[in-house]
Design goal:
67 residues; 60% helix; mainly alpha; 0% strand
């Protein structure tokens, strides 16, 4: 068996791996989207761009995490 065929376990904690964190980032982007398109509360509309931007930056960073 070659070295490349052996799968290694990640030493990262389970909560800091890509799957969970990508789901959280996607949910943050979705919340920002809903905040943008709701017609009732102006403060939610105001912070929708910041929320979507934070989710997008988080997704970009998390995509580099191990599986």
């Amino acid at each position: 068996m070659t070295r490349a065929a052996v799968s290694r376990k990640s030493s990262w904690p389970r909560w800091a791996r890509r799957g969970l964190m990508e789901n959280i980032a996607t949910a943050l982007i979705a919340i920002g989207f809903l905040m943008l398109f709701q017609p009732f509360v102006l403060s939610l509309y105001t912070y929708s761009f910041i929320t979507m931007l934070a989710g997008t930056v988080m997704f970009i960073i998390v995509s580099k995490f191990p599986e």
